[in-house]
Amino acid sequence: MADLTFATQPHVAIPDLPTAVRFGRTLLALDLGTTTGWALHGLDGLITSGTVSFLPGRFDGGGMRYLRFTNWLGELDRLSGPIASIWFEEVRRHAATDAAHVYGGLMATLTAWAELRSVPYEGVPVGTIKRHATGKGNADKAAMIAAARARGFSPADDNEADAIAILFWALETKGGLR
Fold first, then answer.
1. Whole-angstrom Cα distance, residue 10 to residue 44?
2. Contact yes or no for 75/35 (Cβ under 8 A)
3. pTM recorded for the entire structure
4. Phi–psi pair at 46, nearest 5 degrees
C-alpha cells in the first residue's frame, strides 16, 4: 500500500491560506506513473502525502495496474473523501515509450473514474508546477524535493515532492484562477 508522509503541523503545512480554505474540501494531487506520487488535502485541513507503486507483478495481465489504480482511488475516496477535485501533472513528452503508455493508461483511468463520480479534474503543465514550487520552470528533481522540505514535508522521492507541489499550486492559485 501507499507510504504516508505527514507534515509536522497542519498550520505549518499551509500557513498562508485562510481558515475557510484550509477546511471542508478533500483535494487530491497526483504525479502519475508506475510510482505515483500523491498529496491529499483532507476535510480537516491536514495534508498527507506519499507514493504508491503500480508496478505489475510477474503473472499480472496488462490491465492489472489500472485495476489496482482504480481500486486505490476508490479506497482513498472512501477513507478520506469524498474527493472534491483532482489535479495531476500534465506531461506532454516522455523520453521512453513505456513511460508514455503507463502515463496514458493511468490518465485515462483517472479521468474515467472522475467522470463517473462527477469529480472535476485538471492537468497542470510540468513547467507551471516547477515554476510555482522553485521559481524555475525547468527545476531538477533535487530542487523539487528541497521545495517540499522547505514547506515542512519529508518526501520519499521526486514523485511525492511533485504531488505536494501540485497540491500547493492548486491551493495557492485557487486551481489556476489567480
1. 9
2. no
3. 0.85
4. -75, 140
| Count of other CB atoms within 10 angstroms of residue 69 | 20
Alpha carbon of residue 138 to chain centroid: 19
* Residue 175 to residue 129: CA distance in whole angstroms: 12
What are the residues facing 52 on neighbouring strands?
36
Nearest to 162, CA basis, from 31, 28, 18: 31
pLDDT of the residue at 151: 94
Helical ranges in the chain per DSSP H: 10-13, 19-22, 64-80, 97-116, 126-134, 141-150, 158-172
Residues 6+ apart with CB under 8 A from 122: 85, 86, 87, 88, 175, 176
Report pLDDT digits (tens) over 95-133: 788 888 999 999 999 999 999 999 999 999 999 999 999
User: Which of the pair, 66 or 8, is modelled with greater confidence?
Assistant: 66
Written as one string, the DSSP assignment of 145-164 is HHHHHHTT---SSHHHHHHH
Pairing of strands 35-41, 121-125: unpaired
Cell of 104: 496514458
Average pLDDT of span 67-84: 95
Q: What is the pLDDT of residues 84-98, one digit of tens each?
A: 999 999 998 777 888
Task: Please state whether beta strands 47-53 and 35-41 pair in parallel, antiparallel, or not at all (unpaired).
Answer: antiparallel
Q: Given this model, what pLDDT does residue 96 score?
A: 81
